[in-house]
Amino acid sequence: MGVVTPPTDRTPKQDRSRATRRGLLEAAVACLAEHGWAGSTVSVVAERAGVSRGAAQHHFPTREDLFTAAVEYVAEERSAALRALPVQGRTDVVAALVDLYTGPLFRAALQLWVAASNEPQLHPRVTELEARVGRETHRIAVELLAADETKPGVRETVQGLLDMARGLGLANVLTDDTARRRRVVAQWAALVEDALG
Amino acid sequence: MGVVTPPTDRTPKQDRSRATRRGLLEAAVACLAEHGWAGSTVSVVAERAGVSRGAAQHHFPTREDLFTAAVEYVAEERSAALRALPVQGRTDVVAALVDLYTGPLFRAALQLWVAASNEPQLHPRVTELEARVGRETHRIAVELLAADETKPGVRETVQGLLDMARGLGLANVLTDDTARRRRVVAQWAALVEDALG
Question: Which chain A residues have a beta carbon less than 8 Å from that of B167?
Answer without folding.
Answer: 162-170
